[in-house]
Amino acid sequence: MLPLSILVLHGPNLNLLGQREPDIYGSLTLEEINRLLAAEAIKLEAKVAPLQSNHEGVLLDAIHGALGQHQGIVINAGAYTHTSVALRDAIAAVNLPTVEVHLSNIYRREDFRHHSYIAPVVIGQISGFGVQSYLLGLQALVNHLRLKN
Q: In what order do the strands lie in the sheet with 46-52?
C-alpha cells in the first residue's frame, strides 16, 4: 500500500508562529509544527507536504496542483478563512477531502473570525487545540481517506 500524501497549507502570518501573539497561537514555530506533522504522518503511514504562503494566489495554485499529487488537504488558511471566496471555490473545485484547522478557537475571538468561507466545503473543522488541531486534523483526514477506500 502506497502511503497517503497530504498537502498541508499554512496561510498568512503563520510563518511568524513562535513570536506572533504566543498567548493566542502558542510558542511553537511553524518549522516545529511541520516536524510534528511529519512524525505523526509516519505513524499513520502517510506523508505530508507542507507549504506556507502569505499570498492567496500561491495557496490557490497549491490547491489546484494537489489534483493527482495528494489524496487530501489540511488547511489553516489564517485570515483568508474569513475573507477568501477564492480559496473556498478552489477547495470545492478540486473536490479533495479537506480538513480546516486553526490553532485558536476562532469562535471565542473577534466576531469577524466566527465566519469561515471554507467550512461549508470541507469534511470537518478543528480549532482551539493549538498544535493538536493540526495533528487531530491530519489523523481525521487519514482515517476518512482509509475508510473511504
A: 46-52, 4-10, 72-76, 98-102, 124-127
